């Protein structure tokens, strides 16, 4: 009798010791978020090697004596939802959470206190490690209009010093990863000097190859496109990171932006046509001309028809690599990954650059159909533990 592939996999998992139970393939990290804390059946998680619970606020670790570590789910609650042996990490920070990291990185004393608290949190929660999500050391974070980058330049060297202190506090057996920017303009803290220093103490980088079009842009592009993703990973390699230490980011959500009608209508290529002003030039505030939502969310009523057209009339850009639709009726530029676009990234990026893994923001964001996770699984099914093609 020939057993289906998933059944054979499940039998192997049941027979294997806990340390060997995770499918030995390329790293596959899923962020599990407080916004969408839902998980599919375990057979759909067969390639997930790490899950990062997002987020715990960075400022918590600056307190002198902290006893509680608030999070939307405990590590013990998460472990049974995944394949035995899956590493469970705590993601610290996130977009807009910069002040806690700045305070932590300030000097030797603050770095030691921050790192010591992380070590106590890891021990208390039973986590396998931490993901440091500082967006971004050196500036260009959410507060870049309030605190200019010139006032944050000191963070560039302090960032790797903070990571070094965290490694010293939690020891060599726990995992440290970092979520890092995908746009060159945001890589202020990642220089040819700091990246090699950083990689001495960190296990892998989650390169956020998404949101690469955002409200700071003035022309249309693919927010998670192939060419831009290649530029991102190449930037880290050129600065000293090994390709196998990098994970490619996948976005389980959509984005849309308001465009200038006449200029886009007259442009043969809808990539590179002008948008309306998307953020306040004085404050950096959102002007309400851009948006997005996950596959788990209800589609906002004001863009329901436009999104329907994007799904049915959108096309894949073979030149820049990305699915898109310009809705002439609503003057909206839509950019997101379809399952097909997800799969295309393996030969075009993963194989070409020999990267060490993938990650996604986020697992629950792909519910309830989990079509993008399924696309990842189809590709990861073809890899063995060395990341080479499985010839079976």
Structural topology:
Layout: H1 5-15, E1 27-33, E2 50-56, H2 75-78, E3 87-93, H3 99-105, H4 108-125, E4 129-133, H5 155-170, E5 175-181, H6 194-199, E6 204-208, H7 226-238, E7 246-251, E8 253-258, H8 261-265, E9 290-294, H9 304-313, E10 315-317, E11 322-327, E12 332-335, H10 339-353, E13 357-361, H11 371-380
Parallel strand pairs: 1-2, 1-13, 2-3, 3-4, 4-5, 5-6, 6-7, 7-13
Antiparallel strand pairs: 8-9, 8-12, 10-11, 11-12
Task: Walk me through the structure.
The chain has 392 residues and is an alpha/beta fold. The protein has one domain: Alpha-Beta Barrel (TIM Barrel), CATH 3.20.20.80. The chain has helices at 5-15, 75-78, 99-105, 108-125, 155-170, 194-199, 226-238, 261-265, 304-313, 339-353, 371-380, and strands at 27-33, 50-56, 87-93, 129-133, 175-181, 204-208, 246-251, 253-258, 290-294, 315-317, 322-327, 332-335, 357-361. The strands form two sheets. It has an eight-stranded parallel beta barrel. Strands 9-8-12-11-10 form a five-stranded antiparallel sheet, covered by helices on one side. Strand 2, helix 2 (75-78) and strand 3 form a beta-alpha-beta unit. The longest helix has 18 residues, at 108-125. Mean pLDDT is 92; it is low at 1-25 and 385-392.
At a glance:
With 392 residues, the chain is of the alpha/beta class. Helix content is 29%, strand content 19%.
């Amino acid at each position: 009798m020939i057993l289906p592939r998933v059944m054979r996999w499940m039998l192997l998992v049941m027979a294997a010791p806990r340390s060997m139970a995770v499918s030995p393939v390329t790293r596959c990290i899923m962020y599990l978020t407080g916004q969408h804390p839902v998980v599919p059946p375990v057979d759909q998680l067969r390639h997930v090697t790490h899950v990062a619970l997002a987020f715990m606020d960075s400022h918590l670790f600056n307190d002198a004596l902290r006893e509680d570590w608030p999070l939307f789910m405990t590590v013990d609650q998460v472990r049974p939802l995944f394949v035995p042996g899956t590493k469970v990490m705590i993601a610290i920070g996130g977009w807009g959470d910069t002040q806690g990291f700045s305070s932590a990185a300030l000097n030797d004393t603050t770095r030691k206190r921050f790192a010591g608290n992380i070590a106590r949190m890891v021990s208390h929660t039973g986590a396998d490690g931490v993901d440091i999500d500082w967006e971004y050391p050196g500036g260009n974070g959410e507060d870049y209009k309030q605190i200019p980058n010139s006032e944050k330049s000191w963070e560039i060297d302090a960032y790797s010093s903070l990571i070094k202190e965290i490694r010293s506090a939690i020891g060599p057996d726990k995992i440290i990863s970092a979520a890092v920017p995908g746009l060159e303009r945001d890589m202020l803290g990642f220089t040819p000097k700091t990246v090699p220093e950083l990689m001495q103490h960190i296990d892998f980088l989650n390169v956020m190859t998404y949101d690469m079009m955002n409200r700071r842009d003035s022309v249309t592009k693919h927010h998670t496109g192939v060419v831009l993703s290649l530029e991102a990973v190449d930037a880290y390699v050129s600065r000293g990171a090994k390709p196998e230490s990098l994970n490619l980011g996948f976005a389980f959500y959509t984005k849309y932006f308001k465009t200038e009608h006449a200029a886009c209508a007259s442009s043969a290529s809808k990539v590179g046509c002008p948008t309306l002003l998307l953020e306040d030039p004085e404050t950096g505030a959102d002007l309400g001309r851009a948006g997005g939502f996950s596959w788990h969310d209800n589609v906002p009523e004001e863009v329901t028809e436009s999104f329907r057209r994007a799904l049915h009339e959108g096309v894949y850009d073979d030149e820049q690599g990305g699915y898109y639709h310009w809705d002439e009726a609503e003057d909206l530029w839509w950019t997101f990954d379809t399952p097909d676009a997800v799969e295309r990234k393996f030969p075009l990026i993963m194989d070409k650059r020999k990267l060490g893994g993938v990650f996604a923001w986020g697992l629950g964001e792909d519910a309830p159909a989990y079509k993008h996770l399924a696309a990842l699984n189809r590709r990861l099914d073809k890899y063995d533990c060395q990341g080479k093609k499985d010839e079976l």
